[in-house]
């Protein structure tokens, strides 16, 4: 298991990380207060949305004076306006450089097609709202995204993002909400945060991307209630700390459902991970909290810690029916493993390899192949056993020698008379 996963670990680290240094190309915008209210868009109707803020500008449709391209309407808008886009296919690249709401009539029929090149929609102004679009056919490179955000306090909501080089990318962006989007069949990542802090990624359906949701050098984000499936890695945190991963369903990942590498202090709570290669994998990652997760029917270990992943808390998890070990620690010390239900796994319930000073208590282990008794796999235990055996042998030899001398002494004593 370990030997096979070293290759996968390298794949996680280098397969998509080596180009990231090239991304440091845009500056973050100035902070503003996040305050955006969007009117409801009725999908079956073609009249404009009611009660929008600012002056509405219309794209498509049959109204007199309506714009024919989204970019021309964006360029004509002033901060606070709403650009409302009627259903249709708009083959263009769009940059939203003003604080506006960009609203599609229906996310299934209002289509932005980037005709196979570049990024489809770039958001470079703060406090922008984008909702109600299908965005597709960007370029096929890693940096060719359906939606690219380099801004603060924007809201990307209720969009279909499919068949792009990349799905939704946040770059040096703070305080944004990426919610209720369907992100599928993109070449690289579904949702990617790079040097982006304090964002919310919630209630998205992310499927059939090479990597599902990725945080790189990004802190203090909340990834909540997403469904991520059919990826190489479902959710990945690379050099990212103080994030909350809560209530997600991660299914059918080829490498692992959740990966945390090179950073820690993340909280992983209430997630369900099934049918992945590994459930949760920590590599050089300290002081994370894994609580109340359900980890079952994965092809490898339920939870695997390696390479000095120290000081983590693994508490109150349900870990069952995995083909590997329930919990596997390799070269990882000072972790707490407590109150977990670990049942019916193909390997051991808990396995320690070269791992010391871990607190393991109050776990329920049953039905695992060779249920684990922690003391039996601690090197110090076997050293103590060897020392005890040596001591017993020495004592036995001493006693045997003493008895032999006593017999020899009796044989040499003078005869009477």
Q: What is the level-2 CATH architecture name?
A: 3 Solenoid
Q: What would you call the shape?
A: rod-shaped
Broad structural category: mainly beta
Number of strands: 39
Task: List its traits.
Pectate Lyase C-like, 39 strands, disordered N terminus, mainly beta, 13-stranded parallel β-sheet, rod-shaped, 14-stranded parallel β-sheet, 3 helices, 417 residues
Report on the structure:
With 417 residues, this protein is mainly beta. It has one domain (2-380): Pectate Lyase C-like (3 Solenoid). 13% of the residues lie in helices and 35% in strands. The chain is built from three helices and 39 strands. The strands form three sheets. The chain has a 14-stranded parallel sheet, with helices on one face. Strands 3-6-9-12-15-18-21-24-27-30-33-36-39 form a 13-stranded parallel sheet, with no helix packed on it. Strands 4-7-10-13-16-19-22-25-28-31-34-37 form a twelve-stranded parallel sheet. Helix 2 (70-76) links the parallel strand 1 and strand 2. It is rod-shaped. The N and C termini lie far apart (81 Å). Residues 1-52 have low confidence and may be disordered.
Short description:
The chain is mainly beta and 417 residues long. The protein is 13% helix and 35% strand. It has a 14-stranded parallel sheet with strand order 1-2-5-8-11-14-17-20-23-26-29-32-35-38, with helices on one face.
